[in-house]
């Protein structure tokens, strides 16, 4: 019996989590859920965005399935997502993008790639943020370390090796950002040399964006630093039909958190029409992580079959279904 921490989240969070748990229950995996609070709900109930009990639960179970959380803007709160990544040193942000049938994507077939984004350093360390007194000059510190670069590049190559992928593209800007991106590229070359069976190529980030839009089928695994990975992974979500279909895993040595890439969608919250697929696909990543790849494949096949049949699709996919009817249609195809 595996116990996972479940964060139901804000906005559409509880709706898509209920739908996801409905499907997981139908799979009879013997999963036990430990519900924990975070976000606006926790702030109202416990006076804290991220209660200690929630951190303890994640530390204990080592696995969390998480709905989007709303971080209040401009009230001195820092992002809960960034905080969770820091707390548990979730250094690998793994975002697969694979073509699905019947989406609004320009690439109905042929895209099957994974972005592996460094999740703890680079431009997002939140240090050295300064604006001069006259408001005319702003600075920020970026930090790239050998350790941070090595473990993320190694993660990408191991992922390629373990999932039968053939190529890793290292994305950088070492021609301009000579120190930070330069170190990342240098370390990436050293690591790549230890995986002779996996093809490695290098692309400068701006060229990479153009190539992704022109010819996405040439990509397999992409590994890059935090800021570039943030942007590229959203671009890749756009290649396969948008945010409603984009999952992500935040993985560290001691814990992993699985979530949708999208946010709490306040514009459609409470209407019961949110697409549950991104969180369901994240649950699939979780099953892979738990060493149950055949169950993960079973879940993905049911999602694809439901999209193929256009059965109960939510409005973002052009259908007339709702969150729960879509989930039930998926569960019926398991
Ligand atoms: P968002 O992703 O919530 O919404 C962007 C657009 O996509 C909206 O039109 C929304 O209706 C639509 N959308 C998103 N998910 C959908 C789904 N499953 N089905 C159908 N349509 C969907 O981004 P936004 O509006 O920038 O952020 C809203 C809140 O979410 C903010 O408070 C932000 O901080 C938070 N957020 C949380 C994240 C997390 O917890 N991982 C990630 C991104 C944002
Ligand atoms: Mg982002």
From TrEMBL:
Family per similarity comment: Belongs to the isocitrate and isopropylmalate dehydrogenases family.
A matching Pfam family: Iso_dh
InterPro entries, per database record: IsoCit/isopropylmalate_DH_CS, IsoPropMal-DH-like_dom
Top-level lineage group: Bacteria
Protein name: Isocitrate dehydrogenase
EC category: oxidoreductase
UniProt-listed Enzyme Commission number(s): 1.1.1.41
Matches recorded under SUPFAM superfamilies: Isocitrate/Isopropylmalate dehydrogenase-like
Originating species: Pseudoluteimonas lycopersici
């Amino acid at each position: 019996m595996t116990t996972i921490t479940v964060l139901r989240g804000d906005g559409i969070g509880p709706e898509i989590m209920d739908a996801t748990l409905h499907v997981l229950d139908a799979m009879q995996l013997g999963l036990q859920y430990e519900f924990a609070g975070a976000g606006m709900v926790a702030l109202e109930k416990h006076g804290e965005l991220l209660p200690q009990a929630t951190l303890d639960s994640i530390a204990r179970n080592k696995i969390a399935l998480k709905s989007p959380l709303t971080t209040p803007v401009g009230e001195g709160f820092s992002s809960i997502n960034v905080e969770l990544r820091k707390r548990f040193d979730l250094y690998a942000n793994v975002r697969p993008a694979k073509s699905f049938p019947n989406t609004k994507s320009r690439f109905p077939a042929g895209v099957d790639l994974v972005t592996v984004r460094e999740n703890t350093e680079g431009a997002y360390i939140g240090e050295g943020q300064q604006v001069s007194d006259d408001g005319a000059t702003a600075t920020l510190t970026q930090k790239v370390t050998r350790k941070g670069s090595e473990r993320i590049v190694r993660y990408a190559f191991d992922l390629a090796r373990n999932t039968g992928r053939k190529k890793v593209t290292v994305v950088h800007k070492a021609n301009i950002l000579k120190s930070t991106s330069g170190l990342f590229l240098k370390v990436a070359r050293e690591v790549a040399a230890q995986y002779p069976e996996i093809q490695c190529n290098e692309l400068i980030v701006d060229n990479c964006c153009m190539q992704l839009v022109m010819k996405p089928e040439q990509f397999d695994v992409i590994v890059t630093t935090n800021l570039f990975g943030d942007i590229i992974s959203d671009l890749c979500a756009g290649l396969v039909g948008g945010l409603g279909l984009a999952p992500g895993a935040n993985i560290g040595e001691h814990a992993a958190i699985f979530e949708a890439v999208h946010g709490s969608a306040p514009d459609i919250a409470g209407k019961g029409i949110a697409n549950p697929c991104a969180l369901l696909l994240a649950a699939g990543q979780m099953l892979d992580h738990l060493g149950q790849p055949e169950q993960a494949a079973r879940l993905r096949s049911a999602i694809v079959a439901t999209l193929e049949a256009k059965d109960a699709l939510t409005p973002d996919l052009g259908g007339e279904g709702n969150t729960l009817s879509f989930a039930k249609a998926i569960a019926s195809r398991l």
